[in-house]
Amino acid sequence: MTRKSSINRRSLVKAGLAGAAVGGFAMPNVVAAQSRTFQWKMTNAYGPGSPFYVAGPGSPTDFCEMVKKMSGGRLTIQHFAAGELIPALEGFDAVSKGIVEMNAANSYFWAGKIPAAQYFTVVPFGLNFQGQTAWIYHGGGQKLWEELYAPFDLVPMAMGNTGVQMTGWYRKPVNTVEDYKGLKMRIPGLAGKVYAAIGVDVKLLPGGEIFPALERGVIDAAEFVGPYQDRRLGLQKAAKFYYTTGWHEPSNVTELIVNKKAFESLPADLQEIVRAAAAACNTISHTWCEATNSEALDDLIKNHGVTAQPLPVSIVAKLKEVTEAVLNEGAAKDASIKKVHDSFMAFKANHDKWAGVSEFVYQSQIRGQLSKA
């Protein structure tokens, strides 16, 4: 054996020993990361048992169960409905401060802290479920959302969507814009600003307070979600005029916020499990709404004496005009709103072109015309 071959053999042995040493240290670290468990808490803006918002397919409690199963129990999340751990609308601060790791709500509840956050729930006369979801996932919306929330040490993501919502319940019918002068109405978000601009006395009430306020006449009208959810609250017992237009909320995103430090402490695979479960719930919750609202609306009309109809065209036209003014005014006053607004509207302009030759044609011509034949 030559000296050269002897050196090469010794080199290979040394390299093998070094590799074994590195592997010996690396493998325990990998195993440790994959065996570490996390116990988190999630709070919620909605009350115990609320379908969609708390319980049922695609709900926050369903999300918690998905994460537990997908992670093999490595990440467990204890869910607390509104009032069980903190009050309904204190989740943003609780997660930001690290008191809890997660919160489920709607981003427009935080308009006082981040005015542009409202775009990530819904924009009046804006995008439907397909469009809103496409903007968030593929149109730059997610990046903007994360930029807005970064100063608060939060990671936001979509975790649900009701689809188009009903305009709301009225104790008396409305026929003209003048009927809105002095009307007391529960309505959140950007739509509240639009209604206020035409003379509505806007009220922001949690879901559990809507029925007693409407029943006692503390408010004259109220918007919540849609037939299934609204029937559960008993709103049909307090008002009989149910407007169907849904101009104010063509979709409505449930927001999941995660404490940034907590999220970054998770191994990469658990981070992806959180995102994947949220995305799954976004679709599952929406399709659950699509599956349940038809029966509920039929029941409200046939068995509860409810009158369901669109708002008069003249009112909708005025609301659209005022909406454009409200949105443009907000964008002119706040650079962060303008950045989000410009992104949203640019995406909407392109999406409208596609929807105009796809979804709109199907709904108006295929379904509409053939169903009358």
Would you summarize the structure shown here?
The protein has helices at 3-35, 60-70, 91-96, 129-138, 141-149, 189-197, 210-216, 227-233, 260-265, 268-303, 313-333, 335-357, 359-372, and strands spanning 38-44, 75-80, 102-105, 154-161, 168-170, 184-186, 201-203, 221-222, 241-243, 253-259, 307-309. The chain has 373 residues and is of the alpha/beta class. A six-stranded mixed β-sheet has the order 7-6-8-5-9-11, with helices on both faces.
* Cα-to-Cα separation, first versus last residue: 95 Å
Oligomer: single chain
Indicate the structural class.
alpha/beta
Q: Shape, please?
A: globular
Number of helices: 13
Encode the helix/strand succession as letters: HEHEHEHHEEEHEHEHEEHHEHHH
Structure write-up:
By secondary structure, this protein is of the alpha/beta class. It is 51% helix and 13% strand. The chain is built from 13 helices and 11 strands. The chain has helices at residues 3-35, 60-70, 91-96, 129-138, 141-149, 189-197, 210-216, 227-233, 260-265, 268-303, 313-333, 335-357, 359-372, and strands at residues 38-44, 75-80, 102-105, 154-161, 168-170, 184-186, 201-203, 221-222, 241-243, 253-259, 307-309. The strands form 2 sheets. The protein has a 6-stranded mixed sheet, with helices on both faces. Helix 4 packs across helix 5 (141-149) and helix 6 (189-197) crosses helix 11 (313-333).
